[in-house]
Design the sequence.
């Protein structure tokens, strides 16, 4: 990949003629985010402010939470808007364009998801490879499929596939349990600065997705079995 950045652009337009754009620049080799330029950082981005329970970062070595810093501009942009507000969203990646009429909560959830996975958080960094194949507005089932596939591929490259699928699922379950703690920490950070609920509800939606995915991992992702055994799925449907 010869480009200097891997660029993802989100354009949002609401019914009251409110329009905004967010450009997310990723390193094309590591797919880590290239931090947004900021004149100053809000006090709620300081690492020790509502620090996540599972955070392993050294407060002496690091002053700010990398995720909080990178989402702070979005939080400020939407702090006075309501999550159920309808909007038209266009997401442009180097490969294709996605468009959807949705609400602000789903739009912000999609933006938060890509930023959180690429910001250098040691808990969420395991999901960074998924940024290369970013899928905006993904459903719970789509996210489950992508996450499980990514973890199996990760095991293949890291340990030559030596782990059993059951062990890989346990690892995925462990990571999503920590994702829940990160979401809770971020919610605590922004809950006192937003007068409305758009960005807070986006965190809640991410939290709900992490709970769903944790449950799927616990259940050995049996909900996806129908994709590989359609005849059994059809039989089960007919019996019901």
Sequence:
């Amino acid at each position: 990949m010869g480009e200097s950045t891997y660029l993802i652009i989100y354009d949002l337009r609401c019914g009251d003629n409110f329009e905004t754009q967010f450009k997310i620049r990723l390193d094309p080799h590591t797919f880590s985010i290239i931090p947004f330029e900021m004149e100053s950082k809000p006090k709620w981005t300081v690492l020790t402010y509502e620090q996540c329970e599972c955070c392993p970062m050294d407060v002496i070595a690091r002053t700010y939470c990398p995720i909080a810093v990178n989402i702070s501009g979005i939080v400020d942009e939407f702090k006075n808007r309501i999550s159920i507000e309808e909007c038209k969203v266009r997401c442009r990646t180097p490969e294709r364009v996605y468009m959807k009429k949705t609400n602000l909560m789903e739009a912000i959830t999609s933006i938060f998801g890509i930023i959180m996975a690429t910001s250098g958080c040691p808990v969420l960094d395991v999901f960074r490879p998924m940024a290369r194949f970013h899928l905006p507005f993904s459903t719970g089932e789509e996210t489950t499929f992508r996450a499980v596939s990514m973890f199996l591929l990760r095991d293949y490259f890291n340990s030559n596939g030596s782990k059993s699928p059951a062990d890989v699922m346990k690892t995925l379950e462990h990571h999503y349990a920590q994702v829940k703690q990160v979401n809770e920490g971020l919610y605590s950070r922004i809950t006192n600065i937003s007068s409305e609920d758009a960005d807070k509800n986006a965190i809640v939606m991410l939290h709900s997705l992490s709970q769903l995915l944790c449950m799927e991992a616990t259940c050995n992702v049996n909900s996806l079995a129908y994709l590989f055994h359609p005849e059994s799925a059809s039989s089960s449907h007919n019996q019901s």
